[in-house]
């Protein structure tokens, strides 16, 4: 009974914050996966960084929110978010994680699929199966390309529709984050569901997030949603590391003619308006789609391609932004 009351108290806090952020109170009840949530995380350990983190914690708690608790063994959490679905967020998250490792092989990187309604990391990382349990009863992540991964897709049938209520979603996210033996990670990249909803709020409230990477196509509608996502992160005190413009240009493989299918510089203009950095430009390329579909991400399967280079540049920009950002 006490547990139930606690859960409802937490839900109420989340809905209160949700209405502050989004303007419209979301009523408890069936959760609609509306492609409207996104988010990211970070955390820091000493000196000026420690003080900045404490200040963020203080502001966080002053709003009546629970104390954020770092994930055991994880140094920095990076959230990859997008305002709407289908803009290439998961593809970016996977190639960002691999790019972080490719740029500096001494770094250990993990990948968490927080898109509990439509987990795509198992397919993109070519992973299948159920996690084993450690003797501490923690789930052992599945590993491919040197990246430990956790996803709801490892715990449910591939074709099972995931229809959950808000509390169940939050409990699932909490389990995917904390009941996992992540080992020691320099970076945990979290692939968020699209939009600005309960999952994003739950993650940003419970974990200190190092920064958010927002993925958008140059198209107006995607940009509007990206802007909403960026503003949500700012309101919950999560630093926006910058924007990735995806599918910016299509180069015909036959004649090399370049076409800006979704417009050209939309994300760049949005980055300027929001005062955030452009972390990179990823072309619309058949190689990216095909390698993703095969579970052989372009950064590992075609490391010498310009597409892989584009993702590695994004990873380098993210590391630079994390270092620059006062933590
Ligand atoms: N730069 C790109 N060039 C070509 N295809 C791409 C590119 N980025 C993503 N795609 C393809 O677009 C589709 C959607 O990508 P992805 O699943 O990463 O998007 P998403 O934003 O995570 O979608 P959702 O929110 O629905 O999970 C996939 O088929 C992917 O292979």
TrEMBL record:
GO biological process: iron-sulfur cluster assembly; mitochondrial respiratory chain complex I assembly
Cofactors named for this entry: [4Fe-4S] cluster
Main location: mitochondrion
CC per GO annotation: mitochondrial matrix
Domain of life: Eukaryota
Gene3D superfamilies reported for this sequence: P-loop containing nucleotide triphosphate hydrolases
Annotated localization: Mitochondrion
InterPro entries, per the entry: Mrp-like_CS, Mrp/NBP35_ATP-bd, NUBPL-like, P-loop_NTPase, YlxH/NBP35
One Pfam family recorded for the sequence: ParA
Keyword annotations from UniProtKB, A to Z: 4Fe-4S, ATP-binding, Iron, Iron-sulfur, Metal-binding, Mitochondrion, Nucleotide-binding, Transit peptide
One MF annotation (Gene Ontology) recorded for this entry: metal ion binding
Purpose: Iron-sulfur cluster transfer protein involved in the assembly of the mitochondrial membrane respiratory chain NADH dehydrogenase (Complex I). May deliver one or more Fe-S clusters to complex I subunits.
Family membership noted in the UniProt record: Belongs to the Mrp/NBP35 ATP-binding proteins family.
Protein name: Iron-sulfur cluster transfer protein NUBPL
Gene, per the UniProt record: LOC107674123
């Amino acid at each position: 009974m006490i547990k139930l009351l606690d859960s409802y108290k937490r839900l109420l806090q989340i809905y209160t914050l949700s209405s502050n952020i989004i303007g419209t109170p979301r009523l408890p009840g069936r959760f609609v996966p509306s492609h409207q949530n996104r988010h990211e995380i970070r955390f820091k350990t000493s000196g000026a960084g420690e003080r900045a983190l404490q200040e963020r914690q203080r502001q966080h708690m002053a709003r009546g929110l629970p104390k954020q608790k770092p994930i055991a063994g994880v140094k920095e959490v990076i959230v990859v978010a997008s305002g709407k679905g289908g803009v290439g967020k998961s593809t970016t998250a996977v190639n960002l994680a691999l790019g972080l490792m490719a740029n500096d092989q001494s770094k250990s990187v993990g990948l968490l699929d927080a898109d509990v309604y439509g987990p795509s990391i198992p397919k993109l990382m070519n992973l299948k199966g159920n996690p084993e349990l450690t003797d501490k009863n923690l789930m052992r992540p599945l590993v491919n390309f040197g990246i430990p991964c956790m996803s709801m897709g490892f715990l449910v049938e591939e074709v099972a529709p995931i229809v959950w209520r808000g509390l169940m979603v939050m409990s699932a996210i909490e389990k995917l984050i904390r009941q996992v033996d992540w080992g020691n990670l320099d970076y945990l990249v979290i692939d968020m569901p699209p939009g600005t909803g309960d999952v994003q709020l739950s993650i940003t409230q419970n974990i200190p997030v190092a920064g958010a990477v927002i993925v958008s196509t140059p198209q107006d509608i995607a940009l509007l949603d990206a802007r909403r996502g960026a503003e949500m992160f700012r309101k919950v005190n999560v630093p926006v590391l910058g924007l990735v413009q995806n599918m910016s240009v299509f180069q015909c493989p036959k004649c090399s003619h370049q076409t800006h299918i979704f417009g050209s510089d939309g994300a760049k203009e949005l980055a300027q308006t929001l005062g955030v950095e452009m972390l990179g430009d990823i072309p619309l390329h058949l190689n990216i789609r095909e390698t993703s579909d095969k579970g052989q991400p372009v950064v590992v399967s075609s490391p010498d391609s310009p597409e892989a280079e584009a993702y590695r540049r994004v990873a380098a920009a993210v590391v630079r932004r994390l270092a620059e950002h006062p933590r």
